[in-house]
Amino acid sequence: MLLGLTHRRCLLKCRSVKSQTTRSAVVDSALSAFRSICGEDGVSLAAAVREQHGKDESVHRCRPPDVVVFPRCVEEVSAVAKVCHKHDFPIIPFGTGTGLEGGVGAVKGGVCFSLRNMDQVLDLHQEDFDVTVEPGVTRKALNAYLRDTGLWFPVDPGADASLCGMAATSASGTNAVRYGTMRENVLNLEVVLADGTIVHTAGKGRRPRKTSAGYNLTNLFVGSEGTLGIITKTTLRLYGIPESMVSAICSFPSVQAAVDSTVQILQSGVPIARIEFLDDVMIDACNRFSSLSYPVTPTLFLEFHGSERSLEEQVNTAEDITQSNGGSDFQWARDPETRNKLWKARHDAWYAAQALRPGCKAYSTDVCVPLSQLPQIIVETKEDLMENRLTGPIAGHVGDGNFHCLMVVDPDDPEELHRVHLFTERLARRALAMDGTCTGEHGVGLGKRALLCEELGHTSIQVMQGLKDALDPKNLMNPEKVLQLRRV
Amino acid sequence: MSGRVLVGVKRVIDYAVKIRVKPDNSGIVTDGVKHSMNPFCEIAIEEAVKLKEKKLIKEVVAVSCGPQQSQETIRTALAMGADRGIHVEVTGKDYEALGPLQVSKIMAALAKKEDAQLIILGKQAIDDDCNQTGQMTAALLDWPQGTFASEVALEGDKVKVVREIDGGLETIKINTPAVVTADLRLNTPRYATLPNIMKAKKKKIANMKPADLGVDLTSRLEVLRVDEPPQRQAGVKVETGGGPGGQTEGGRDDIEASGARRGAQNYADGTL
């Protein structure tokens, strides 16, 4: 829906090149090969299954693949990939379908590799703080597995996503400010390329905490969104579960005051775990949705991790800083029940935003700018929203300079959809103009390919295209994502 | 009052594992399978530790009956805040036949030996689903019991327990010493943190055998066979044409074949 009219026309042209029936007939010829590799149960042509695997949680419409396969091990993934390579079928890896940029849509049809049956936690090394997992393991499942060890994997993008999928989209989350994103926390990957070759990006079974051995292949695939290979194992860096946590909330008279506080807290060396910003529109929505009564002004939600003693120091420092910036109503809590109550507004933000206009859908924008630019971009964005009569409460990972407008839009109103689409393009360009990026954590997917070109510039895009050509010369891996179709 | 609470913790197959039956149908595959503390036992430990943090009781003792590996479960309890552990060693055939009756005899003996004020157990174990050990322990000791607890409050020498029952919630007040069994909503167990796991290594676990407590482990039960639940059949489409009373000929046959009509009849005439 938010693709814009020119994109849609381009896609329709692609579809008409190979008609539906011709493509299906070609796929049919390979079905027996798929069945002999994955078993009778491991291949599905059912419409419901294909539709389920053709969409994620973005606003992009469903684009079902021609067939869904369910491989059980990396050897099966490789064998099926070889068949696809022989027949020139597009290959689309699928984890949990919780992406936000249409990354799993089978724009040119093809074979969806649903990796959910590969669901083992392999090789946990407690003393080394690392673990290797298969694509079917989600982040909550891993943390439940680890609960007796005192370790956890802190990257938390909100959804219960596949960890390999999180690696593929370079996911991030609310505690990236302290624990980093996937880029900093993936030590090694096992990847199957378009021709079935199995690659271990840091060497098979290797898991040193740091290395300077050769090209950084691991981080080449992190964030590649399935366009360079299928991730079948990821080795992750683990952290100790914090001994104690304290949550706090503080209201500010302006966005500037909130961001200034954030910068100063970071500068003072407080190892803050989460620092989330909600604007006045969002706080108002949360008040209504959860029957709270927070002051309707820019608000920061903070979370501190550490030992009992260090927490006291952290909270005191943070409180002093917020007060010196005009912050008020500073509340904090240590026990889980009160902490959850304090953070309830932030947790329910998505639903609170949707509740502003029942019957409408919510779409999250995602840009990231240097911290110093955050007040200006938020102020300009709010003006843009008001000028164009759009509903877009703002929630942000302000410690990273990353914020989301939760656009609440009527899916049956094409005029409003168009206004939202133009708004998101302006927002992305505004971020680019401030030395930022058009996507802080959601990825490029289908909708931001043109913006990626603007962000990186022609030369860098050419380098990326060169890498893509080297690893996937037939352009079978998740076509039409990240990089635009090259105009020959 | 001694201020001492005994908490039973059982080592079971982890709840997230897909259970497989042994090919000879003699039992479940346990070799190489991930084990962890029974979730209801985690809730029991959490409640005991909370009582200690509120200074309402003085000492939490974690007890587990089983082979050497049960000590890992006790260590987890210690990492969550229990003060010391007791490992009652039961191995081999005795362990395979270990059930609520024997465990309750062990818990009763330990309660007397340790002069316990309160015993907190999980309401049931997720492997056998018996839901008997708490009740049997209370009966052997002739102590009051507050089972399926979703709230526990110590009030002097009494305990107020809010119980989850079919009709809703029932609040009872019982004298101590007493047995309480923990239900799901009693609390949310804490994660064991690394510093606490390190500290737990220094806490003591006493070893003993059931014979030391004068307990006879002979089981009155014999497991004959273990089978997986029947595979789910595909749904059967039947002809429409009225309710169980009046279908077309062909429809009736379909429904009878799938047993649905018999089922409906049983429901109608009250045999189900």
From TrEMBL, chain A:
What biological process terms from GO does the record include? lactate catabolic process
**UniProtKB keywords:** Acetylation, FAD, Flavoprotein, Mitochondrion, Oxidoreductase, Transit peptide
Q: Which GO terms describe its molecular function?
A: D-lactate dehydrogenase (cytochrome) activity; D-lactate dehydrogenase (NAD+) activity; FAD binding
Specify the FAD-binding PCMH-type domain's residue ranges: 60-241
Q: Which SUPFAM superfamilies match?
A: FAD-binding/transporter-associated domain-like, FAD-linked oxidases, C-terminal domain
Is Flavoprotein included in the keywords of this UniProt record?
Answer: yes
Pfam families (alphabetical):
FAD-oxidase_C, FAD_binding_4
- What is the catalytic activity of this protein? (R)-lactate + 2 Fe(III)-[cytochrome c] = 2 Fe(II)-[cytochrome c] + pyruvate + 2 H(+)
The family database entries (InterPro entries) matched by this protein are listed as: FAD-bd_oxidored_4_C, FAD-bd_PCMH, FAD-bd_PCMH-like_sf, FAD-bd_PCMH_sub2, FAD-linked_Oxase-like_C, Oxid_FAD_bind_N, Vanillyl_alc_oxidase_C-sub2
Question: Keyword Lipoprotein, does the record have it?
Answer: no
Q: Which GO terms describe its cellular component?
A: mitochondrion
Cellular compartments annotated: Mitochondrion
Instruction: Tell me the superkingdom of the source.
Output: Eukaryota
Q: Which family does it belong to?
A: Belongs to the FAD-binding oxidoreductase/transferase type 4 family.
Please explain the role this protein plays, according to its UniProt record. Involved in D-lactate, but not L-lactate catabolic process.
Subunit and interaction comment? Interacts with CSRP3.
Q: What is this protein called?
A: Probable D-lactate dehydrogenase, mitochondrial
The scientific name of the source species is Larimichthys crocea
Automatic annotation (TrEMBL), chain B:
This protein is called what? Uncharacterized protein
